[in-house]
Amino acid sequence: MAELTLVRHAQASFHAADYDCLSPLGEQQSRWLGGYFAARGLGFDAFLTGTLRRHHQTLAGIAEGMGAGAMKPTLELPGLDEYDFRALVGAFVTAEPEHPLVRAHHADTRDKPAFYRVLRLALQAWADERLQGPLPESWAQFHERVDAAAAEMQRVSADHARILAIGSGGAMAMLLGGRLGLAAPQIVDLNLQIRNTSLSHFFLNREKFLLASWNAVPHLEAADRANTITYG
């Protein structure tokens, strides 16, 4: 069986006009991850990413940290891209303007915990088909495109022994949830706990997609990096 290392992208630019760009800390997180791989002599023979800039920037930082040349994706998989979280939150806020958590979010729009509390509600409403459109995609469509990416990874595993894939947290949670048969609330919980540049390991072939470990950040656990573990 092939080994898949699935990485969530490094920290993006939450308060910037363009979220899809790594923050300075995110750039450092990705370099540290590359250094972790290099120190352990880990290499890969296939590189998969979503289509987003933050995925490609994370791969570039890993390559820099490994002291390797530029790594070009073997394949881009749209199923590793995130759902449109801003559209989902916007739809929920429009539908529930007086909800206490929505009011708390409006009181300080730069408060990330307040935003993520609303996001949790929006994700569950989306999964339950309670959000009014138009929306970029339904929960079922999101599930389908992540499933398509998982199937493509299994196809790639026939020709590559060690695969590195970089995607977004929601897609990663849906991928694991789909393999384990989890319900939507459990997938939402998984989504909101995935750390930037976390490592999840799977063994896979055309028939099986098996979890070995989930959401580890060994490259960020040194005492002097205690404040570098992020979720956005």
Detailed description of the structure:
This protein has 232 residues and is of the alpha/beta class. It folds into 2 domains: 143 residues, 3-Layer(aba) Sandwich (Rossmann fold); 53 residues, no CATH class. Helices cover 45% and strands 14% of the residues. It is built from 8 helices and 6 strands. It has a 6-stranded mixed beta sheet with strand order 3-2-4-1-5-6. Helix 7 packs across helix 8. The longest helix is centred in the middle third of the chain and has 18 residues. The chain is globular.
Annotation keywords:
232 residues, alpha/beta, Rossmann fold, 6-stranded mixed β-sheet, 8 helices
Short description:
This protein has eight helices and six strands.
Give the helices and strands, then pairings.
Blueprint: E1 2-8, H1 24-39, E2 46-49, H2 53-66, E3 75-76, H3 85-95, H4 100-107, H5 112-127, H6 139-156, E4 162-167, H7 169-180, H8 184-193, E5 199-204, E6 209-216
Parallel strand pairs: 1-4, 2-3, 2-4
Antiparallel strand pairs: 1-5, 5-6
Helix pairs in contact: 1-2, 3-5, 4-5, 5-8, 6-7, 7-8
Estimate percent helicity. Answer: 40-55%
The largest β sheet comes out as: 6 strands, mixed
Looking at this structure, what is the CATH superfamily of the largest domain? Answer: Phosphoglycerate mutase-like
- Uncertain spans: none
CATH architecture of the largest domain: 3-Layer(aba) Sandwich
Discrete helix count: 8
Order of helices and strands: EHEHEHHHHEHHEE
For the termini, the CA-CA separation is: 32 Å
Structural class: alpha/beta
- Look up the CATH topology of the largest domain: Rossmann fold
Name of the CATH first level of the largest domain:
Alpha Beta
Q: What is the average of the pLDDT values?
A: 96
For the secondary structure, the number of strands is 6
Spatial strand order of the main sheet? 3-2-4-1-5-6
How many separate structural domains? 2
Rg over C-alpha atoms, rounded to the nearest angstrom: 18 Å
Q: Write down the overall geometry.
A: globular
**What percentage of amino acids are in beta strands?**
5-15%
